[in-house]
Amino acid sequence: GGDGGAGGTVNISGGTVTANGNSGAGIGGGDSGAGGTVNISGGTVIAKSDYAAGIGGGDGGAGGTTTITGGAVNAVSTFVAGIGHGRNATDNGTGKIVPKAWHVANAWMNYSRILTENFTSEKSISSYDGKIMKIEITELEHIPVTEINGVASEMTVSTPLTLSGTVVPEGATNKTITWSISDAGTTEATLSGSSLSALHAGTVKVLATIVNGSAWGTNYTQEFEIEVTYPRLAVPTSLAWNYLNTTWDAVENSTGYSVQLYKDGIAPGNPKSVTVNACDFTSEITETGIYTFKVTAIGDGTAYSDSLQSGESTALNYTKPVVKYTINASANDAVYGNVTGAGDYIADASVTVTATANTGYHFVKWTENDTEVSTALSYIFTSSKNRTLVAVFEADVLPVFSIQPADQTVTAGTTASFSVTATGKPAPTYQWQVSTDGGANWNNIADATAASYSIASCDLSMDGYKYRCAAINTAGTAYSDPATLTVNAAPVISTHPASQTVTAGSTASFDVTATGNPALSYQWQVSIDNGSNWS
């Protein structure tokens, strides 16, 4: 739209569009012309004049309709400039909108200072000439950034790292990343554009920023830690097995190696540290399985850092050898007895050796190196070494009584006890017997198998019973001398004395009748205090 003419419809989606004029310049409306319709979705759009410049309306004309959804838009003038309306005004300046967050629809703006404000809702402002400028703000569609991934996590000293990352989602509205250092730590890291450099090992934190990445007007930021190391040593190669020993090619500048063993794909313990390019796993490989190993070269931490772990070695199929132990077992004299159970046994097997005495002999104990290890006829243990065992037998010796039972005399209802002591080889057991016919026949007493035997509450019917003890071992049975039990009856008064009344100077007589065994004797007593005391 030129001088005095109404503006037409202008659609700009890209490129660079410029309207220049000494007195007036407009895109969509010129000097004194009514504004047209201007739709700007991209590109660079400039209306420039020394006097008046407008996009959507020039100097003195009614405002048009300007919609900006993208691109960079400028109305530049030393006197009057406007976007949507270039009306006469007292303010000088430059009007500019770069709509990253908003687009402007049906807007009449007559001087540049309006454009320095942020609008989040509809706004009405009175202009210099009393016209109402109505600004309607509509938010553009925005797809936010949710994360940035793929950023390197390590770098080496003196080797620049070009920072880059993948923005998620791929269709995010804004995806341009700018980088900054948030914490250099001890690394003395510097950043030139996206190129990161560090002078020392340590950790550097960098901040990735995407303008308007989270929402219009809100930036997206994400911090990353990058480990700075000295140049890594070369990865060990040529890993090989030499039975249970391992080797690999030496790595230049390494101070040693860390070797990790694996059994059936699982590390059974911590890595082993060695200073040469070989490692012995004889003490670690003891069970059947498939074994592999990996190696890491160790740096000095000043000029070189550790290498990455090597690839896995070839597999070693190891079968645990069958370990056998020899168990020797014999008698101290073959005449005395014999043993069974000797032979070769695999490791951790259960072993039973059994001693059997010949007639006239008995088993005493098992010994090893003249030290007793068991007194059980059948000695059971787990094979863990070679052993030589001896079963010790002795000749049987018939029991002999050193203490004989003594005759006992008790009163009916009381306890009688008999005891003996006998020796023999092997040590004898005891069995008490009783004879109720004067010793002609003897019967075992149930549960009377100790060296002592007691009879609780003897009965008169037991008077004259005889008792003896049998001492028994493998040599035979010996009998003690018999002991006689005498049971006496306690005295019983059947006729008590009667009370007597006599004349002084005459005779009084008292009589009793009593029975008991043995024959009774008598002793009369008198009480002169009504029975409290007797003498």
Characterize the structure shown.
This protein has 535 residues and is an all-beta fold. The chain is built from no helices and 48 strands. A hairpin with a 2-residue loop joins strand 23 (240-242) and strand 24. 28% of the residues are buried. Residues 78-138 have low confidence and may be disordered.
Summarize the structure.
The chain is mainly beta.
Describe the secondary structure blueprint for this structure.
Elements: E1 9-12, E2 16-21, E3 24-27, E4 37-40, E5 44-49, E6 52-55, E7 65-68, E8 72-77, E9 80-83, E10 93-97, E11 102-105, E12 123-126, E13 132-139, E14 147-149, E15 154-156, E16 161-162, E17 166-168, E18 178-183, E19 190-192, E20 195-197, E21 202-215, E22 218-229, E23 240-242, E24 245-247, E25 256-263, E26 272-274, E27 278-280, E28 289-298, E29 316-318, E30 324-331, E31 337-340, E32 343-346, E33 350-357, E34 361-368, E35 371-374, E36 378-382, E37 387-395, E38 397-403, E39 408-411, E40 416-419, E41 421-425, E42 429-435, E43 443-444, E44 452-455, E45 466-473, E46 476-479, E47 483-495, E48 513-517
Parallel strand pairs: 1-4, 2-5, 3-6, 4-7, 5-8, 6-9, 15-22, 30-37, 39-47
Antiparallel strand pairs: 8-10, 11-13, 12-13, 14-17, 16-20, 18-21, 19-20, 21-22, 23-24, 24-27, 25-26, 25-28, 28-29, 30-32, 31-33, 33-36, 34-35, 34-37, 38-41, 40-44, 42-43, 42-45, 45-46, 45-47, 47-48
